[in-house]
Amino acid sequence: MNYKLHSLKPNDEALLNEGKLLPLMEEFYTIQGEGFNTGKAAYFIRIGGCDVGCHWCDVKESWDANIHPLTPIEKIITNVLEWKAPSVVVTGGEPLIYNLNALTAQLKAKNIETFIETSGAYKLSGNWDWICLSPKKTMAPLPEVYEKANELKVIVFNQHDFKWAEEQAAKVGKDCYLYLQPEWSKHQELIPQIIEYVKNNPKWMISLQTHKYMNIP
Hints:
Oligomer: single chain
Strand order of the largest sheet: 3-1-2-4-5-6-7-8-9
Number of strands: 9
Distance between the termini: 29 Å
Structural class: alpha/beta
Strand content: 15-25%
Mean pLDDT: 95
Number of helices: 7
Number of domains: 1
Radius of gyration: 17 Å
CATH class: Alpha Beta
Low-confidence stretches: none
């Protein structure tokens, strides 16, 4: 793991590297609001820690993993089961900073679908039913994540992002779904532009942050 947490106990460091402890920022059962799986019930696990550093990030409190408690994955699994959630979305921060093999193995053993939302900047770990790749200009995704992505979700903040989105689309597999999503603080300005772009380039679809319209997490 390249991203370092401070003042770890020796045993905690070993468990963190094995993926048996994760810095848990928050967890909640809600409706997936974005991308291909919009509208589905899912349990969200938000893991702290990110060095990708998007200036428009709306969860900057996730960046510093040191302020989020190291949590045994067994406790996380217990919480998922209490809600009887059919699927889990692992997000961040940047969740692939950590080894997610153990977490997804335990979820799959309980017949729970596993989804991840990642920038793709770190090595892929875990067993996933769905990989949403949301690449960022600050840290390029690794080739293996491009290859395995089920969904490419590009956040549009300015005009150059349309060109950049096409560059990203050229790197994913032919069966990968392509989405353009307006950055929330400018969504009213950007939605008309994205509509016209998709009409002229229909391989793309539009993703909206519908959970924000519904006022849910």
